[in-house]
């Protein structure tokens, strides 16, 4: 009996060490981002293209809107002094030298000086609509990316799950947990990627819209000041 107990105590450490070795090796296994991207399947290709489109639209629109929002200090003041002095040609030259939606809008109004006030207001309003349309160009594409990327990610997940269950159905014998888990995480990669692309695109779209709204407010304020300026000499 003592000999039997002695054999158990001497063999136990060997079994514990052997059992611990696979666990130690498992903790060292890592999955790179490239491996995850490759595991996403076909849906990763259009998702990557959508991400590139979103980056291009945001950067291009941001630079355009930032340039349009720059209004040189004293522009409205100098324009007022030239108009009140009757120097219409000088006021038009000042607007032509200032590259901004406000200057182009007011230049059209200055060119209509002498006509009825309604005609001047209409010309300013028409140019303002054109300038706003230029600022909003491409934003619909960014909004499309913000909505399409998550949906495309979900579609990739659904198709991936279908493929995983097909593989499980076709498997013979006992289903391996590794087969099930790998199929699920590969399918979920597309959902995560779609959300990672869609959320920044949505935030970027609203950010640019807020910037455009600020420019539109400045344009409206400037047009009102200009119309009031034309009425001052008649007072």
UniProtKB/TrEMBL annotation:
Limits of the MotA/TolQ/ExbB proton channel domain: 98-220
What's the superkingdom here? Bacteria
Q: Which family does it belong to?
A: Belongs to the exbB/tolQ family.
Bilayer-crossing residues are 36-59, 139-168, 188-209
Question: One of this protein's Pfam families, by short name?
Answer: MotA_ExbB
Cell membrane: is it a keyword of this entry?
Answer: yes
Q: What is this protein called?
A: MotA/TolQ/ExbB proton channel family protein
**Where can this protein be found?**
Cell membrane; Membrane
Keyword Cell inner membrane included in the entry's annotation: no
Primary localisation category: membrane
Entry keywords, A to Z = Cell membrane, Membrane, Protein transport, Transmembrane, Transmembrane helix, Transport
| Membrane disposition | Multi-pass membrane protein
Alphabetical list of InterPro entries matching this protein: ExbB/TolQ_transport, MotA_ExbB_proton_chnl
